[in-house]
Amino acid sequence: MSLLHDKLSKTIPVYQNEIKNFAKTYGEKVIDQVTVGALLGGQRGIKSLLCDTSEVPADHGLIIRGVPILKLVDKLPEEVFWLLLTGELPSADELKDLQGELEKRRTVPAYVWNVLEALPKDSHPMAVLNLLILALQRESVFAKRYNEGMGKDDYWKASLEDALNLVARLPEIAAAIYRWKYDLGPRIAPKPGLDWGASYAYMMGIEDKNGGFARLMRLYMTVHTDHESGNVSAHTSHCVASALSDPYFATSAGLDGLAGPLHGLANQEVLQWLLDVLKKFNGNPSNEQLDAFARDTLGSGRVIPGYGHAVLRVVDPRFTAFMDFGLKECPESPVFKLATQVFHVVPEILKTIQKIKDPWPNVDSISGTLLYHYGVTQANYYTVLFGVSRAMGMCSQMVMSRAWGEPIQRPKSITFKALDKLAQA
Ligand code: HAX
Q1: pTM over the 0.85 mark
Q2: How far apart are CA 117 and CA 399, in angstroms?
Q3: Domain ranges in the chain?
Q4: Residue 303 CA to ligand 1 centre (angstroms)
Q5: Any catalytic annotation for residue 364?
Q6: CA of 315 to the centre of ligand 1 (A)
Q7: How many angstroms does the Cα of residue 312 sit away from the middle of ligand 1?
Q8: Which stretches in the chain have pLDDT values below 50?
Q9: Which residue in the list 263, 316, 358, 373 is annotated as catalytic?
Q10: Which of 28, 59, 82, 114 has the highest count of CB atoms within 10 angstroms of its CB?
Q11: Options 3.30.1130.10, 3.10.310.10, 1.10.580.10, 3.40.1060.10; which CATH number does 1-412 get?
Q12: Distance between CA atoms of 282 and 145, rounded to whole angstroms?
């Protein structure tokens, strides 16, 4: 058994008991109300999900298990994975053990490559990623043990097995998608001894003389892991897993949601928007030109991608993490420079539009510019990188939900007629 499994075997029973007793004591306590506005507004802000892996206060941004994300930027993604699951950062021995587990589990079955090769090259990389995760579903330990009659107390253990196996394999799968999709040559096998993020960078085959791309990939994978449970991808995977669909089904479903332009696909949209600006002005524009370009986008009924957020009301700290990285590693990159210029111009415009609640940049407004600098110029791949990292968060949430025994989710829908009646009453 892994040290992670051992640790969770000690902490999870305490967590289970706490929640069971809490439900008994406070089951009838009202904690929120549903207004007609919230119902018609995408259930925005209704407190109706339990998530202990992370939280996102509107005025702070992402906090993972009590640690603000800007305090985690020097950590490896696998350290954050441990933190998400256990509530503590791993010791050196625990980290080594987890890395050993991931290395041991990372071999991708050959049939996955057959599925990849059979797909049309013009498939969106997110469709390919999600299909390959589904292809792996037959490996699910959760599904197998469930069919063998596993008891409820063991659900989290089987989910953890699936989580570890999936997280271990995703970098090789995602790197293979990159090389296949853009005709970059044969797959690159993992190199022993590399950490999880650096290994992903290596398998993509990007030339990385000073290690900058590996550093970016570690940061990228660290900051994208989790964002509490109400966002579309986490919420979806959470809901699917509540039916006891295994982590392969639930992760693939969640990542389908990540592939929407209002969510994770925004990073692809941002890069395209920035390249359009550079093309139109034959290089970096003046602030006045950029202002006019942004107003044109808004005037044509489109959103400015990478700006605004359903929860945040401050600059996304993940944006700050990438901004700091870019200022240190590639301050002269034209596309990165443009993203920093947009940060000075666009919020001033968005602040003047009353309906927009958050005029500030989110993570997607800048992440792609750094990838672009290192040669990952294919914007429609960016959400795959996001997804590989986010799988850690979704899987961690699933382990915790199976641990406390979350029942199948089943909110209630009502007809407009019934809503009208309730509103008039
Ligand atoms: N540009 C133009 N209009 C915007 C806007 C932006 N960046 N952000 C919000 N708005 C508009 C909304 O479209 C909405 O207009 P309508 O009422 O006409 O539909 C209005 O302002 C109110 O929206 P809001 O309450 O401020 O924001 P929402 O919670 O409804 O939506 C979104 C949050 C992130 C979807 C929104 O800000 C947006 O579309 N941003 C651009 C896309 C983007 O960057 N998405 C990534 C978000 C982060 C993420 O999930 N990453 O994975």
Answers
A1: yes
A2: 32
A3: 1-412
A4: 7
A5: yes
A6: 14
A7: 11
A8: none
A9: 263
A10: 82
A11: 1.10.580.10
A12: 59
